[in-house]
Amino acid sequence: MGLHVAVAGNIGSGKTTLTTLLAKHYKWKAYYEDVTNNPYLADFYDDMHRWSFNLQIFFLSSRLSQIIEIKRSNKPVIQDRTIYEDAYIFAPNLHSMGLMSTRDFETYFSLFKIMISLVSPPDLIIYLQASIAKLVEQIQKRGREYEQSISIEYLKRLNERYEEWASSFNATKLLVINVDNLDFYNRKEDLSGIINLIDANLFGLL
Q1: Residues ≥6 apart with Cβ < 8 Å to 150
Q2: One of 80, 86, 180, 190 is an active-site residue; which one?
């Protein structure tokens, strides 16, 4: 059975960067979140209420396709974002903010439960924990136009849900790494520290 590691975290926490660096270090195949070919993302940030259900269904479908491909490949892989975040953080947050109807949320979540019953979880999930200040800094730095309209309140709500999810998640191993004072892209020692933690969790190495 191939090794399956996934990176979780709020918008701007550094998931994609860390996924790329770890894939290179371990020689794992990387699976990324599809933001460039996502037909709903830009529309969603313009009108969240109208496009929330469409966007979440797209992500759910995309994530399941990745998981199926990962399991069939039987090779070590690392995945940028997990199916759990879609269902336990982003969709319920939209619902609680009044941006997704109860009818749509219940339809979405029933589909998620069927999907999750058919697949196994990753061997390890790395959760990148970050403050709002860190997230805003990272979002502004990468300069995606459609992300500039994301509100502080939206990020704050997501962060609260991430913390709640991380405190009770038990489907597989969860490694929590606070990234507020880390720069694993530019500082080799920061990346090495993360790699040591991953080794300890996956292989029992210190």
Answers
A1: 11, 45, 139
A2: 80
